[in-house]
Amino acid sequence: MIARKARFKSARTIERACGCRIPEAAFNGATLEVLSERVNIDRLGGTLREQVLAFIHDFLSCRCRSSPFCGCPERKFAEKVIELRENGLDHKGISAVLLDEYGIDLFPADILAFLEDTVHVLEAISDVARLRGKKEMESHADEHIALIER
C-alpha cells in the first residue's frame, strides 16, 4: 500500500519534539503512536506544526477502538492520494501537495505505480459488478477509473 512508502521529511525534528526516537515512515506503528499521544506540538516550528496538525486531523481522527493501529490512517491516506488525482493533479503534483500539506515525502514514481494498481483493482470491481448485475457499483467504479486515467 502507498502509505508504507510515505516518509516524514522532518522526522528528526519531530523526534526532538516528542523526546523519543521514531522511524521516518509516516505510517509506522511507532510513529502513529507518538503522533497520537506523545508529540509536543508547541515544540515544533510554525510550518512543521501546521503539517503535523493536518496529518493528525486528516489521518489519525477515527473512533476505532484500536486507533491508530486500526488501518484507518493508511486507508485515509490512500483515499487522499486518489482524491488529489481525481481532482486533476498528476503524480508529481500529488507529491508536491503531500510534502507541502503534511511534510510527507513520497516519490512520484511510487504514486504513479499506486494509481495504476488502483485502476486495475477498479477494473476488476467493475467486471465483477457487471457479472453480478450491480449496475450502480459498476458505474461508480467506471467513473473513478475515468477520473484517475484522465
Characterise the protein shown here:
With 150 residues, this protein is an all-alpha fold. It has helices at residues 11-18, 29-37, 46-59, 72-86, 91-102, 108-132, 135-149, and strands at residues 7-8, 104-105. The protein has a two-stranded antiparallel sheet with strand order 1-2. The longest helix is centred in the C-terminal third of the chain and has 25 residues, at 108-132. The chain is elongated.
Class by helix and strand content? mainly alpha
Mean pLDDT, all residues: 93
In which range does the helix fraction lie?
55-70%
- Care to count the β-strands? 2
Determine the oligomeric state from the structure: single chain
Task: Tell me the β content.
Answer: under 5%
How would the global form be characterised? elongated
End-to-end Cα distance, whole Å, is 22 Å
Strand order of the largest sheet: 1-2
Computed Rg: 17 Å
In the predicted model, the low-confidence regions spanning at least 5 consecutive residues are: none
Q: What can be said about this structure in brief?
A:
This protein has 150 residues and is mostly helical. Helices cover 65% and strands 3% of the residues. The chain has one domain (2-110).
Annotate the secondary structure layout:
Layout: E1 7-8, H1 11-18, H2 29-37, H3 46-59, H4 72-86, H5 91-102, E2 104-105, H6 108-132, H7 135-149
Antiparallel strand pairs: 1-2
Helix pairs in contact: 5-6, 6-7
What are the defining features of this structure?
150 residues; two-stranded antiparallel sheet; 65% helix; 7 helices; mainly alpha
